[in-house]
TrEMBL record:
Domain of life of the native organism: Bacteria
SUPFAM superfamilies assigned to the protein according to its UniProt record, in alphabetical order: N-(deoxy)ribosyltransferase-like
Pfam families: Nuc_deoxyrib_tr
Keywords associated with the record: Transferase
One GO MF term attached to the UniProt entry: transferase activity
InterPro entries: Nucleoside_deoxyribTrfase (IPR007710)
Protein's UniProt name: Nucleoside deoxyribosyltransferase
Amino acid sequence: MVATGHVYLGSPFYSDAQRARVKKAQELLAQNETVVRVHFPFDYEFVDPDDPNPKAGIPSLKWQLATYQNDLTGLVNASVGVFLYDMDQLDDGSAFEIGYMRALHKPVVLVPFTEHPEKEKKMNLMLAQGVTTLIDGNSEFEKLASYDFNSCMSDPVTGYRIF
C-alpha cells in the first residue's frame, strides 16, 4: 500500500488532558500505514523575536498574523483533517479549522472526547453534518492507527442529539 494521507491534526492544547490526547494521537497516526505526514500546528509555532513569550500576555500582531497564516498553510497542504474535539470545553479555533477544511472540500475525521461520558451526547448541527466521519475518542481512539486515510470514507455522526 502506498501512503497518501497528509494529516492536519487539530486540537486545543491548553490542558494536560488535551496535550496527552495529542501525544497519543501522534503515536497512533505514526503507526498508520496510510499516513505520510502529520502537521500539528503547535509543532510549527511561530516565534516573534520581539515577543518570545506570547502566552504570557497579549501576543503581538506579528505573532497573531504569522500563526494564523501558518495554520491556514497547514490546512491547505493537508489531504485530511483529524480533530481531537473536546466536548467539555468547546474550542472556537478547532471549529473554524474544521469549517475551513470542509470549505476546501477536504475530509474531516472528528474525534470527540468528554470527561463526562454519562451525560447526554449532543452536538451542533453544523459540526455533526460538516464532518466526514466520527471516531469516538473515549471508546475508539485506537482506530486512528488503522483508519484508511487514503480513501477517508464517510461515516456520518450518529448517537448524538443534534441541536
